[in-house]
Design a protein that fits this description.
There is one protein chain. This protein is an alpha/beta fold and 369 residues long. The protein is built from twelve helices and 14 strands. The strands form three sheets. It has a seven-stranded parallel sheet with strand order 5-6-7-8-9-10-11. Strands 3-2-1-14 form a four-stranded antiparallel sheet, sandwiched between helices. A three-stranded antiparallel sheet has the order 4-13-12, with no helix packed on it. Strand 7, helix 7 and strand 8 form a beta-alpha-beta unit. It is globular.
């Protein structure tokens, strides 16, 4: 059994959202993404997803750029070569700079095939811990605090324990205060998605009394240094997310003491291989991890769930919650969510099957490479 490619097929998809989802960077009303199917020479199928959008409002990459890179650079680089482990595939992809979201799709597909070859779930092959993964919802920016409080209450009633709310200038202190006053004991965190500058530190410091689990990515993703400055001016734990694209970024964060926590986004760091390596580094440094998410199909959620089992991922994850936002999915069966916990799949590979009818409905175009 080998990991040599027989064929690769791309499926750009569009699935409507149940409601608009707004963060500081913008708003989406439907989810556009790119599914990648890899078939190896033995006929095994692996799936991955480039968790991007039509426009680069959040990620640097787009559906179009991922298709172009996969077609003209990444897949030709791998074609005709034989690999024995997914790590070898991911390392070869470093021949080209950046474009981690596109690379992550191939990385996941090869891990999916590898798990099927080994008759093991990917989370176990990664060294994950056999325990349910706790997850929590991420609530977008609302027009007024009262609407946000109602949304938080609804999610608590569903059994979730950790609540994340999105913030941006003008949609922050009053919203945090309203939620905390309504629910003084819940585990609450906020996510700014790069919305603030270091000059906003006095305003951010006003959030300290609200006993937040963490403040996620308050400053620009390039401001690893200024996060270290901000950390000295507030008591709320700082989490870096968008700043962490590579192992080098994680090392700089640790060296400059820029964060108390690191959120590893599997798609942003280029896949499960890099996610595991960054996790291992953070574990050695005493930096807690958790696995973040993006609105996307269950294909992307599968890789995140596998990563969320890693032993240093001690905080609740965002993964396997996109069903809250999307009207449908391409999986034959969603991952099992019991209250706020997800049961790990025991099926070999990433643990899911694609529904061919739904795939045809939401991804009518297919690009065979």
């Amino acid at each position: 059994m080998t990991l040599a490619i027989r064929s690769v097929t791309l499926y750009p998809y569009t699935i409507p959202l149940k409601m608009p989802f707004r963060i500081s960077a913008g708003e989406i009303r439907e989810k556009d993404g790119l599914l990648v199917k890899v078939e190896n020479v033995d006929g095994l199928i692996g799936w991955g997803e480039a968790s991007v959008d039509k426009v680069p409002f959040y990620a640097h990459e787009t559906v179009g750029s991922a298709i172009d890179l996969l077609k003209n650079s990444l897949v030709p680089l791998l074609t005709g070569k034989t690999f024995s482990h997914p790590d070898e595939v991911t390392d070869l992809l470093e021949h080209f700079r950046g474009n981690n979201f596109a690379k992550a799709a191939l990385d996941a597909a090869f891990w999916d095939i590898y798990g099927k070859q080994q008759s093991q779930p990917v989370w176990r092959l990664l060294g994950g811990v056999d325990r349910p993964v706790e997850v929590g919802p991420s609530l977008g920016i609302k027009k007024e605090p009262g609407i946000l409080v109602e949304a938080v209450g609804a999610k608590l009633a569903e059994g979730f324990r950790r609540i994340k709310i999105k913030v941006s200038p003008g949609f922050d202190t009053a919203y945090i205060r309203a939620v905390r006053e309504a629910y003084p004991e819940i585990t609450l965190m906020v996510d700014a998605n790069n919305a603030y500058k270091i000059s906003d530190a006095p305003e951010i410091a006003k959030w300290d009394p609200y006993k937040l689990l963490m403040l996620e990515q308050p400053l620009d993703e390039r401001d690893i240094y200024f996060h270290s400055v901000l950390k000295k001016q507030i008591t709320t734990p700082v989490c870096l997310d968008e700043s962490i694209h590579t192992m080098h970024d994680a090392q700089c964060c640790a060296d400059m003491n820029s964060a108390d926590i690191i959120n590893i986004k599997v798609c942003r760091v280029g896949g499960l291989t890099h996610a595991k390596r960054i996790h291992d580094f953070c574990q050695a440094q005493g930096l807690p991890n958790w696995i973040g998410s993006r609105v996307g199909s269950g294909v992307s959620e599968a890789a995140r769930l596998a990563a969320a089992t890693l032993p240093n991922c001690t905080l609740p994850s965002d993964c396997v919650i996109t069903r809250m936002y999307m009207t449908d999915d391409v999986l034959a069966e969603p991952f099992e969510l019991n209250g706020c916990r997800v049961t790990l799949p025991e099926k070999p590979g990433l643990g899911f099957d694609i529904d061919p009818e739904k795939l045809a409905r939401y991804a009518p175009e297919k690009i065979k490479l």
